[in-house]
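[Automated response] Your request has been received and processed.

Submitted sequence:
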Amino acid sequence: MYKPNFKISLKISAFILAFVMLTGHTRADEGMWLPMLVKRLNEADMKANGLKLTAEEIYSVNNSSLKDAIFGLGYGDPSWNFCTSEAISSKGLLLTNHHCAFDMIQNHSTVDNDYLTDGFWAKSMAEELPNPGITASVLVKMEDVTERVKKALDGLNLEEQAAKLEEIKAEIIAEHTKDTHYKGYIKDFFYGNEYYLFVSEVFLDVRLVGAPPSSIGKFGGDTDNWMWPRHTGDFSLLRVYAGKDGKPAEYSTENVPLEPKHSLPVSMKGVEQGDFAMVFGFPGSTQRFKTSYGLDVDYAVTNPARIKLREKRLSLMKEKMDVDAATRIAYASKYASISNYYKYFIGQNAGLKRLKTIDKKRMQEKEYQTWADASGNESYSTALSRLDKAYSNSVDYALWSAYWQEAFFGSEIVSFGAGFRQLNMSLEMDVNDETKKILDGMLEKLKTSTKEHFEEYRATVDENVTGALLGMFYSDIDKKYHPEIFAEIANEHNGNFDKYAKYLFENSIFASEEKTMKFLENPNGEVLSNDPVMKLITSVIATYRTIAPQIAVANEEVSLAMKDYVAGLLVKNKNKTYYPDANSSLRLSYGNVKDYSPKDGVKYQYFTTLEGVAEKYIPNDDEFDAPKALLEMQMSKEYGKYADKDGTLHVGFITNNDITGGNSGSPVINGDGELIGLAFDGNWEAMTGDLVFDEQYKRCINVDIRYVLFCIDKLAGASRLIDEMNLVRAKKGKKSK
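Generated structure:
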């Protein structure tokens, strides 16, 4: 297992080498760094901040290293991960966030076995629950392929480059995965100025081992989301299984727990102000090179639109969830997902305003333009004016796109019905043996997806949401961008979209599982084409097709200009060490445990304790209820070996590590390479983090690993899981008793 004998080139691209600082060192907190470059770019600075490991102990191809304990959670494609997890035992035990496993917990929950409310703990490996479709991938190696890609593209026009790029990517991936079961992918960095190959091993059998009740895993709910001080035990446990040969295998009772190449020792020592902290994971996306022109659109156009539409969806969902337990369970994950980024967009705009980010960007761009004009390079000197023009020409399309995503596809019946578009087209084809085989396969897949859809669906909720969102699209978007069907709705339903929604749900085959399955048993193209939801979808897509070419042109103009702008920045600031934007590739960030003051006269200490849970506790409240057993232990102070040296049980702590979405579930690791916590959130004051790093306020919110262990041991009684781990106290390597 995990014993590839690849030789990796340590050649670093000319771009990155050019940015190594000639004097001083990079600020420890900012940056999401590629692990293969740590030795060259970060090792000295990390050691100055408290790292005791070598770069090879962090990233190595031929030997066990920290990277071998980091697993991305996804759906089969290792190039994108929805969360991070980490191996904490030699038996494939993974630790991740409660909110990362929330869908899995929900899928196994019923009204009678409500694991969301009550928690779940498998008493043995035989009771661990499978999760079809969920995968765990681990990086085998990465390699800089910039020069080879650029050489292949040299001299070609844009259209030729696009085709050649896919060809050379496929060629390189095939070379590095030949005769293996690994999966490879290539990502671009610095807006297409660099390219890296990633080779991963993807495991297909991931099982739910344990999760605390939501009154621990989601304690604080939406009120505390993105906030510090925090008292959330946001953790859950999974396990990776493999075939008996140690290789990835589909779920089978014959599979065995994976023995990872490396698992993290678990520190019982706690943390103190100033301690070194490293976060290792798969951050999703940042746009820190984005110019003032793009930020203007975010701040004034798209963020307000998303806030408005999500606020309405949430309020309508909550009305139904509050009065029916089954609806609450069915919509818990959806509500949390929508709410998470609703609050995020609000915080991002508040942060952009407070930091005067757009004004600062304009000043930087003015300085850049002076340099670019003197450089003699037309690509550099025209980049900003091209960006200004591209964004100015696409403001209406940006708003339309936000409403397309949030309003049309915020309606579940619309998004579900859209999945039948291909069937609609297939039913129009002539039937022969080949097309019948394709059609039969499509119908089986749709039957499966239909059952899954209606397991977590309530038409009464969706009808209200659909009417409201379509009405907001009608009111807020210029009529020249309306789908043609809106004119019919205005005539037939007097522009009343609630009445129109009622009509949809009374007449569409997509309104109930019974109707949909009945149709799939005897599919008919005419019935599908005339279904009111399909007619809505067809009209909306027709409108999209008229707008899409303009959107594509604007996006291409932005992409090409950004490539030139970033290339110019890298040349202009040649003595600066740049890190690339996050793109769901494996990264590490490093910093320190650190308190902060959000405003004058207020200072937040770097940790929280169980006493804070008791102080916030509100009996039977959706957000601030807490288990009786937990409160009793808080009263008696029965914390055992999990207590801090101050006698309290620490629940969470903060560091100044640089993280973003996708880092959820990432391990927080001390200077000895030991697990000290679990990253799960950022703080409200620094919601601009995807666009600009806030040196003063940026904090990573983490669950203290001792609280995780306490909950597993004392509350769940799952000591068998504790026994799997290597618990480390004062001396590195010494197992805690």
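Summary generated for your ticket: The two ends are 30 Å apart (CA to CA). The chain has a mean pLDDT of 92.
If you did not submit this request, please reply to this message.
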